[in-house]
Amino acid sequence: MCSGVGACRKTLSGTMCPSYMATRDEAHSTRGRANTLRLAMNGALGNGGGPRDAGLGDREVYDVLDLCLECRACKTECPVGVDMARFKSEFLNDYWRRNGTPLRARVLGHIRTLSVLASRAAPLINPWLDRDWVRALNERLFGIDRRRSLPLWAGRTLARAWRRHAARNGARSGAPDVVLFNDTFTNYYDPQIGLAAREVLGAAGLTVGLAPHACCGRPLISQGLLSAARDRAANAVRRLHPLAAAGTPIVLLEPSCLSALKDDVPDLLRGEAQQRAREVAAACVLFEDYLNQRLEDGGATLPLRSGPEEILLHGHCHQKSLGLVAPAKALLERIPETRVTDLDSGCCGMAGSFGYAREHFDISQQIGERRLLPAARELGPGNVLVAGGTSCRHQVHDFTGVQAQHPAVLLQSLLE
Questions:
Q1: Whole-structure pTM over 0.90, yes or no?
Q2: Domains and CATH numbers, the chain
Q3: How far, in Å, CA of 312 to CA of 386, rounded?
Q4: Which parts of the chain sit beneath pLDDT 50?
């Protein structure tokens, strides 16, 4: 697919390619990776394993793919749409089969399973996560850099908090106007974001339900664990399809989950499951996009008081790849007496679990320092940085101490 035009070597605007912007090394551009994969698949690199191996098991090929942050910017910013994120996940799936799957990939890929268990003991586990010896142990066992802060598990998940609210206030009769997708990050780490979204949508005159918890498989896909990701995707489609078939919009709060359900899940499945996955994908919409659409068409009204003088908006990479930063900006511009600035800050550098790896720490920071992190440090008193992605918010907090907000949380704080 790569035509060699080199649009991935740009350095002044857009997102593609974050690692090239930091290193200025051709090997870490989308074009460099495409050429490496082409040579490997043609057998031009070789690994001594015969023509069928075609060089794809080489450590050198792995090293070239390693700094791909799977931001998906190339899918939209490359003139021919080279989707290196997908190629990397396919490559990793094959590479682990040849060379064995490391413990870190298994742990990070199965973060949903780990979260189910850990959240039950969150009050006991969380106080230990910031201890120096725990960080050192995580670095030794899993390669998670000790300089990184670890996210805390919520003692009460979004699903539990939602049930408790329904028990107190009584369940509404009839089908909801919209359901929230209960993703792993919101359910087990940031349930307050889900609760804020429910309150904001409710204030807009909409009835809101909670979809069954069904992980989209994004962490497994990113780690190249595609067999497990396929099983997870099939389960998500089974649980979400009745909602899609009923015509109920499925609103997502995490952009990476939206891109998984729209772009990855349908391609992981086959036959009738694939068709159902496409129907689910068509029903899925990002929170900011959905609410802005309803406000535009008159299907909802949202009473808001004046907000901060300025809001800096950092779009998640997958949000950008889906063309959904503009609706987020339009929604925030509905806040009275507020100026919204799209930072055009490219990738934050965290990219899910990428920035947690010890070998990625420095380049992760370097990518963020291009524009996002300096903007966060220069944030004026009372002004706000908004970021829809959980990894983006963690990156900003780790390197600047600034607490970026999800759009739903900011809007909730400004409800009249």
A1: yes
A2: 7-100 (no CATH), 302-413 (3.40.50)
A3: 6
A4: 48-52
